[in-house]
Structure formats: C-alpha cells, structure tokens
Amino acid sequence: MNKLLILLFLFSVGSFVGWVIELFFRRYLDPVERKKKKWVNPGFFTGPYLPIYGSGLIVLYILGHISIPSIGQEHPLLEKLLIFVIMAACMTFLEFVTGMIFIDHLHVQLWDYSSYWGNIKGVICPLFSCFWYALAAFYYLILHPRVLGALNWLSHNLAFSFFIGFFYGIFMLDFIYTFHLMVKIKTLADEYEIVVKYNAYKSKLIDIREEAKERSSFFFSSRLGSISAREVFERYRENFSAKKMVMKPINKMKDAVERVRK
Questions:
Q1: Three-state secondary structure along 191-227?
Q2: Are 54 and 222 in contact (CB under 8 A)?
Q3: Which of 31, 109, 172, 233 has the most CB within a 10 Å radius?
Q4: What is the mean pLDDT of each run of 10 residues along the chain (262 residues)?
Q5: What pTM does this model have?
Q6: Which helix (H) or strand (E) holds 243?
C-alpha cells in the first residue's frame, strides 16, 4: 500500500484518539485540570483532533518494527523494556520540540507542566514521560498488531480513503482558521511582551462567556458578551501570562552600555 496513505491514515486516527484520551484525562485524572470539573476541548484546534498524537502514532508505528537482537535472543523481556524506553524518549522529545516551537515562534504555551516536579520550561516533566512510557507499552503490546491489521484491511478497501480525504478537508479548513487565531494571539503577546498560556487563556474566555450569560437578561445583554481579544489581554493577561519576555529590556540595556562606551 502507498506509504503516504499509511502515514495519512495513522495521523488521522492518532489525532482523533489522542483528543479523546486528553479529553477524559483532563476531566478525571489530571491533578490540576480535574479540579475545575469542566469538559474542555483539549486542543488548540476547533475540531476533535490533536496533531501531536497523530505524529506520535506515526513514531510509535515506526519504532514498533525495531528489535535489539543482541539482547532479545537471551533477554526478550529486557528488549521490550528498552524499546518502551526508546518510544517514551522519542515521544518526550517530540513533545518538547513541539512545545518550544510554539513558545519561541508564536509566543504561545500550548500546555503547562510548570506546577509538576522536575519540569523543563513547563513543556516536559518526568510524570508525563512516565505516561508516555505506559502508553508506549500499551501500544506495543496491545495496539501494534491491531494497527497492522487495520492497515492490511485498508489495503484491500481503498474506497475508505475517501473518508481520510474528508478528514483532511475539514482539518485544513480548521488549520486555516486556527492559524489566523494564533497570528492574532502572537500579535497581542508581542505587544504586551508575554508568552500566553493557551489553556489558561481559553479557560478565561469560557469563564467570561459564562459570566456574560449569567448577567444577561431578556431585555439587556451583558457587555462581556462582546468583549474583544484586546480587552481580554488588557484586563486578564496576568491570568494566562507564562512569563515576561525579556529580550527588549536586554537590548535596551546593551544600547545604553554601548552609548556609555562611546
């Protein structure tokens, strides 16, 4: 079967399944999010998909084919444990790279692990690396044979690729909409010299909308219902600001030092 079709299929399935996992994890298991007792879309897209899980499924699928003959012949259990470590390390690396790209280039922090022990820049932490390890083991032992079976079925039912195309059609429309939203957020983040905690920003918007509904009456609607993104940044940015961006003050200090030397 066409390798591109395989990757497209894995990405679409992984993105959707990952969204479902995150939805229930944040609602019932996450030490921080579960206290809010709310169902919240875990992604930065509007639709039900998380691309990082789609990319992760592709990584796990590829790594699921590796073996370590020098160890596996005598210690098959140890071989599996090492493969799980490799998978978890790759998933953690993927998470770190994705998170830092958004922070450095869009000034948006998609998730925040700063409250967890041993975190690095709030993007990765030992606890979630352990979750990746457990997920890798589950994939390798339970899901990988079924994924191979699904790909075999797809190779004999290529008409199903129509639904894959349908998924990507919706995904691309959502991507365009979300990209414009991210550009707006980045513009405001640059202006206010902050990095935006996206989940906190989204939660604040939900709180504002709920407050607007409570204040509205039959004849009068609340002013909060039409609040702009700029007003949200002006009033509430301390609620979703990860840190002050320090590059401009540093540059000003360098300029001052240069003037003194001259």
A1: HHCEEEEHHHHHHHHHHHHHHHHHHCCCCCCCHHHHC
A2: no
A3: 109
A4: 87 95 86 75 89 96 91 88 96 96 93 91 94 95 93 85 91 94 92 90 82 66 67 86 56 51 54
A5: 0.84
A6: strand 241-244
